[in-house]
């Protein structure tokens, strides 16, 4: 499809490109819907589905990234972009780390109980 055939629809922060004809309605492409630029959704999910203390750190860095981007919106310098990218990267790392740590704890706890039971029966 060429660019002339696409109709751009703005929904929130996302940009949808839809074909004008109904025959090609299955070929809708989305830009920006899955890409959360400051990882706020990941931070909230990591609070709910992960270790909440690490999730809160992720949310703090996510808020810092968004506020830095909004505050310095007129200044589009390399230093500003690097600062926003640094906060975004930290938010992503804390969010993913929170969820991974929770999954590891869930998996290790039954293994440790089984090992403790084995050791106790082995001692007797």
The biggest beta sheet is recorded as: 3 strands, antiparallel
Proportion of helical residues: 55-70%
| Main β-sheet, spatial strand arrangement | 1-2-3
Low-confidence stretches: 1-34
Rg over CA atoms: 22 Å
Helical run tally: 3
Number of strands: 3
Average pLDDT reading: 77
Gap between N and C termini: 74 Å
* The number of domains: 2
Order of helices and strands: EEEHHH
Strand content: 5-15%
* Class based on secondary structure composition and strand pairing: alpha+beta
**Rough shape?**
rod-shaped
Describe what this molecule looks like in 3D.
The protein contains three helices and three strands; from the N terminus they run βββααα. The protein is of the alpha+beta class and 124 residues long. The protein folds into two domains: 1-35, no CATH class; 40-123. The chain has a three-stranded antiparallel β-sheet, with no helix packed on it. β1 (6-11) and β2 (14-19) form a beta hairpin. α1 (40-49) runs antiparallel to α2 (52-71), α1 packs parallel to α3 (78-123) and α2 runs antiparallel to α3. The longest helix has 46 residues, at 78-123. The protein is rod-shaped and about 70 Å long. The model is unreliable at 1-34 (pLDDT under 50).
What is this entry, summarized?
Belongs to the CD225/Dispanin family. With 124 residues, the chain is of the alpha+beta class.
Chain-wise SSE layout:
Layout: E1 6-11, E2 14-19, E3 29-31, H1 40-49, H2 52-71, H3 78-123
Antiparallel strand pairs: 1-2, 2-3
Helix pairs in contact: 1-2, 1-3, 2-3
Pfam families: CD225
Subcellular location: Membrane
Main location: membrane
């Amino acid at each position: 499809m060429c660019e002339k055939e696409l109709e751009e629809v703005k929904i929130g922060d996302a940009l949808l490109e839809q074909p004008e004809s109904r025959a090609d309605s299955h070929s809708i492409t989305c830009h920006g819907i899955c890409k959360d630029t400051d990882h706020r959704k990941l931070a909230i999910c990591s609070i709910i589905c992960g270790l909440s203390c690490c999730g809160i750190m992720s949310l703090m860095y996510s808020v810092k990234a968004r506020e830095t981007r909004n505050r310095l919106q007129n200044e589009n310098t390399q230093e500003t972009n690097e600062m926003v990218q640094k906060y975004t990267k930290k938010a992503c790392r804390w969010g993913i780390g929170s969820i991974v740590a929770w999954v590891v704890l869930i998996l290790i706890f039954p293994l440790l109980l089984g090992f403790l039971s084995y050791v106790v029966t082995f001692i007797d």
